């Protein structure tokens, strides 16, 4: 410890002039100190006299005792006293009061009992373990009822939280308290930097909208404030508006009852995720309808359908520029034609507009509007059945000559000849293969012949009487079956002598 010399001053304690330590000579570049001085013994006595108060405040601060001077003595000079150095180390590393001077034990500043004293670093207040844990269950209940973020400090008038002190003790309520404090911190992080709240141990502010206490209020840049529940309610209202109007975002829509139209995302970051999911869904639907859709402005609400006068995601025009309608109207129109389409085994062909003669069966639009399944529940089934029919018709093992349509009403399926029974590959209906075969009662027009069919690679016809397959390998058209029925090979009509 270097001496400052006799710089024209006297010791603030004994008024001596020998071995003085001038305070300002020990101050750093960023600190200021007075020009008063103290000798070694007086400096020690001065520091020891103020250490108890510094320990109570949990802040090492020694003031110059000179009358009218309230400047601090430089820490470099204060730390030359061992007890002050011990207190400084305890403040930096430990939460326990150190002993000062000849102290054997400390006394709790709240209850006065001799016991180890633990310090709350948040506020500097100290108390024994019993005082910290006193009424912990009731305090936790109070925190929940008043939306406080932490157990308040037990010192009167202090609203700092004290969980960092309590976690060093043992109590059956500490686990529940730890969970509560952790959830409060997570909630504050989600609130974003726009959240305004008081000290952790103070009651939460009252929301001016719903009148409920919350841990923090979120302030819009315009000054409007509300709790997170109310803000989430505002966001849900905006989301409903966007969904009803097929808008990607609430452009021009008031963000809250204050009438502000500023972006709400900085206030409530969770809204970013909510609207991102909504936008992704709308963009996916627009890509699905893109081939037949009329381009639209993505910054505002969707266009109004000229048929139903409702807002829509986009308008579809499969044929003419003027013939447009929303997906729901096209789906309803397709649903009206389902029965006729199944009867004719084809997709809806007529345009929604009466004067239009365009054929929409192959326009590809019906495969896109099938997404509106609530309005056209039978359209997806018709599309799937017709796709299945086309695959059956393209079979190279069973050419068109042996393909027969299903006789069930409303079924667009088909089966293959070649067996006694035929089964539809769509509805699985089975029927006798001879149904519909020309018999004796059938009269063909003059000159019309019954075509042969190929069964297992053999060209055959069925006997009009017993319906067995017959192969003709030569000779005239006069055929005699094993059932003794005689008929003409060409027409399958009964054979008449003299032909």
Automatic annotation (TrEMBL):
GO terms for molecular function: ubiquitin-protein transferase activity; zinc ion binding. Residues 301-499 form the RING-type domain. InterPro entries: E3_UB_ligase_RBR, TRIAD_supradom. It comes from the Eukaryota. Keywords: Metal-binding, Repeat, Transferase, Ubl conjugation pathway, Zinc, Zinc-finger. The keyword Acetylation does not apply. GO terms for biological process: protein ubiquitination. PANTHER family: RBR FAMILY RING FINGER AND IBR DOMAIN-CONTAINING (PTHR11685). This is Arih1l protein. It comes from Symbiodinium necroappetens. The gene is arih1l.
């Amino acid at each position: 410890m270097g001496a400052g010399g006799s710089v024209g001053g006297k010791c603030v304690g004994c008024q001596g002039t020998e071995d003085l330590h001038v305070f300002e000579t020990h101050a750093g570049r960023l600190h200021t100190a007075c020009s008063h001085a103290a000798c070694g013994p007086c400096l020690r006595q001065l520091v020891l006299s103020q250490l108890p108060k510094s320990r109570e405040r949990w802040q090492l601060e020694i003031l110059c005792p000179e009358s009218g001077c309230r400047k601090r003595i430089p820490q470099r000079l204060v730390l030359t006293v061992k007890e002050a150095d011990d207190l400084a180390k305890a403040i930096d590393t430990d939460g326990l009061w150190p002993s000062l001077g000849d102290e054997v034990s400390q006394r709790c500043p709240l209850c006065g009992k001799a016991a180890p004293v633990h310090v709350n670093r948040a506020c500097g207040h100290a108390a024994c373990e019993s005082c910290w844990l006193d009424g912990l269950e009731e305090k936790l209940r109070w925190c929940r009822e008043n939306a406080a973020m932490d157990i308040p400090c037990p010192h009167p008038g202090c609203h700092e939280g004290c969980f960092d002190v309590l976690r060093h003790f043992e109590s059956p309520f500490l686990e529940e308290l730890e969970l509560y404090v952790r959830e409060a911190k997570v909630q504050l992080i989600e609130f974003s930097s726009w959240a305004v709240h008081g000290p952790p141990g103070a009651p939460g502010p009252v929301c001016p909208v719903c009148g409920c206490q919350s841990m923090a209020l979120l302030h819009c840049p315009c000054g409007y404030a509300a709790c997170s529940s109310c803000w989430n309610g505002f966001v849900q209202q905006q989301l409903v508006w966007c969904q009803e109007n097929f808008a990607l975002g609430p452009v021009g829509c008031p963000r809250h009852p204050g009438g502000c139209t500023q972006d709400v995302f900085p206030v409530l970051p969770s809204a970013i995720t909510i609207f991102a999911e909504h936008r992704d869904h709308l963009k996916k639907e627009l890509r699905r309808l893109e081939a037949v859709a009329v381009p639209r402005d993505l910054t505002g609400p969707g266009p109004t359908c000229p048929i139903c006068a409702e807002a829509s995601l986009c308008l579809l025009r499969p044929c003419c520029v003027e013939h447009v309608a929303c997906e729901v109207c096209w789906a309803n129109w397709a649903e009206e034609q389902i029965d006729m389409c199944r009867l004719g085994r084809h997709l809806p062909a007529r345009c929604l507009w009466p004067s239009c003669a365009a054929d929409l069966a192959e326009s590809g639009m019906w495969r896109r509007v099938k997404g509106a399944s609530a309005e056209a529940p039978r359209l997806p089934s018709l599309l799937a059945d017709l796709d299945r029919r086309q695959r059956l018709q393209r079979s190279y093992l069973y050419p068109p000559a042996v393909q027969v349509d299903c006789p069930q009403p409303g079924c667009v399926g088909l089966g293959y000849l070649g067996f006694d029974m035929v089964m539809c590959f769509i509805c699985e209906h089975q029927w006798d293969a001879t149904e519909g075969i020309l018999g004796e009662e059938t009269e063909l027009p003059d000159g019309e012949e019954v075509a042969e069919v190929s069964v297992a690679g053999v060209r055959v016809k069925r006997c009009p009487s017993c319906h067995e397959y017959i192969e003709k390998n030569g000779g005239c058209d006069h055929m005699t079956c094993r059932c003794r029925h005689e008929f003409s090979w060409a027409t399958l009509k009964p054979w008449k002598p003299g032909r």
